[in-house]
Amino acid sequence: MLKAKGTGIDALDEAIRASGGIGFEDAFRRWGSMLAFPDAKALPAGYGYPGVKVGDYTSPAWNGSDIAKYYAFPATLPDTIKPYSHLPLVEPNQSGQYTREVKVPPGVTLSVYIQ
């Protein structure tokens, strides 16, 4: 971040790419999808919170499903979702065939996890 020449999101994007990352847009989308606290064992590559060692500091891996019980998810959708926002919705205890229609406006990313 200290070497980035841009400001705001541009600086963050530059710093993420300079450290070998995928850039702000993809990193932010992937981070937002983790707010639903999915089970780390079922995640595709590039998602989740694996353990990381940087210099003398080690950040341990953690599994979202282990902490989901401490978080209250919203029960309904709000009327609007602001830019750069995330809204995790979890529909627990579903079984068999399940159908739900969701309208996704232009410019919005929808991530769906099925466990």
Protein model, in words:
This protein has a two-stranded antiparallel sheet. It has helices at residues 8-18, 24-33, 64-67; strands at residues 52-54, 57-59. The chain is mostly helical. It has one domain. The longest helix is centred in the first third of the chain and has 11 residues, at 8-18. It is 22% helix and 5% strand.
What brief labels describe this structure?
115 residues, mainly alpha, two-stranded antiparallel ribbon, 3 helices, 22% helix, globular
Distance between the termini: 36 Å
**Mean pLDDT across all amino acids:** 84
User: Given the structure, what is the number of helices?
Assistant: 3
Strand content: 5-15%
Radius of gyration: 17 Å
H-E order:
HHEEH
Largest sheet: 2 strands, antiparallel
Q: Which structural class matches the secondary elements?
A: mainly alpha
What topology emerges from the helices and strands here?
Elements: H1 8-18, H2 24-33, E1 52-54, E2 57-59, H3 64-67
Antiparallel strand pairs: 1-2
Could you write a compact summary of the structure shown?
With 115 residues, the protein is mainly alpha-helical. The chain is built from 3 helices and 2 strands.
